[in-house]
Specification:
Elements (H helix, E strand, L loop, with lengths): L1 H23 L3 H4 L13 H32 L17 H30 L7 E8 L2 E7 L8 E2 L21 E5 L4 E7 L4 E5 L4 E5 L5 E5 L5 E7 L11 E7 L1 H12 L29
Parallel strand pairs: 1-5, 4-10
Antiparallel strand pairs: 1-2, 2-3, 5-8, 6-7, 6-9, 9-10
């Protein structure tokens, strides 16, 4: 019995040392669960990061407990030299069976409740948003319209988007792509639509993406809270040049945003809207066209 205790004691030492080293060496990226961006990128990113890191912390603790019990059982109850036959067989242990039935159930309910709470907060519509964007995904680029209202004085749009091109070195040019401008600390509503097939609007550092479905508008609400340039892409396989369907988001001060809108309004090529009339599919019931029977 003494040898068993000594073995368990010494086996715990390297595990403890490894855990101490791992915890001491945590970087900011590791502390946020290797998620991109920062907690203050939008008003939703901190809640998303908290849900992610808390979930993984709980699951890691459960994993360490299970692995520890497995190692303990393999070491303590291993076959000794000279032993033969099978050990004493046990059929039932009701307290343990109840425990490993109830604990996973509690964990599942907890994960569901916190996920539903975060989803409800993220999906909640913003009444009277400061900025409304009408975004269209298309094979294989983006059209961005700034809808009049809030801090936007007129209907304007970015130039019709063109997919990212490969440079001479074979890499994608991520600079010359459609760019969406947003004012910092202003509430934003993005109307998501597709001109052809299913796409998905994804600003990587915003930690959220949403599908763009032909004939059906989806909506996204958030407030950008950190000035910077952010990469965006389509997150739904949509055809041959899906990987080139890139865009950028410039989060700027309100004065810079207003100056950009004024610049678009002064250019006849960027006034008005690139609307649903440019959609490749014109027979969706939601667009008011007659459906073809037969």
């Amino acid at each position: 019995m003494r040898s068993n205790r000594r073995l368990v004691k010494w086996s715990a030492v390297p595990l403890g040392i490894a855990a101490a080293i791992a915890l001491a060496g945590c970087t900011q990226q590791e502390q946020q669960g290797y998620l991109p961006g920062a907690a203050d990128t939008t008003n939703h990113t901190s809640e998303t990061m908290a849900l992610w890191t808390t979930s993984w912390t709980i699951l890691l603790v459960v994993g360490l407990l299970v692995w520890g019990l497995l190692l303990w059982a393999m070491i303590v109850y291993r076959r000794r030299r000279g032993q033969t036959g099978l050990p004493v067989q046990l059929r039932y242990n009701m307290p343990i069976e109840i425990l490993y039935t109830i604990v996973p159930f509690i964990l599942i309910i907890g994960f569901f409740a916190f996920t539903a709470k975060a989803q409800e907060d993220i999906e909640a519509p913003t009444p009277n948003p400061d900025v409304t964007i009408s975004a269209f995904g298309k094979q294989w680029s983006w059209d961005f319209n700034y809808v009049k209202g809030g801090v936007t004085d007129t209907d304007v749009h970015e130039l019709a988007g063109v997919q990212a091109q490969y440079g001479p070195d074979g890499t994608l040019d991520g600079d010359d792509v459609p760019t969406l401008w947003l004012p910092v600390d202003k509430t934003v509503h993005i109307e998501l639509n597709s001109r052809d097939v299913i796409h998905s609007f994804w600003v990587v550092d915003f930690l959220y993406k949403k599908d763009m479905i032909p004939g059906k508008q989806n909506d996204m609400y958030f407030t950008p809270t950190k000035i910077g340039e952010y990469a965006g892409k389509c997150a739904e396989l949509c055809g041959e040049y899906h990987s080139q369907m890139l865009f950028k988001v410039n989060v700027v001060s309100e004065s810079d945003y207003e100056a950009h809108i004024a610049e678009l309004a002064a250019n006849p090529e960027t006034t008005g809207q690139l609307g649903a009339d440019l959609n490749r599919n014109q027979n969706h019931p939601n667009e008011g066209a007659e459906t073809v029977e037969g």
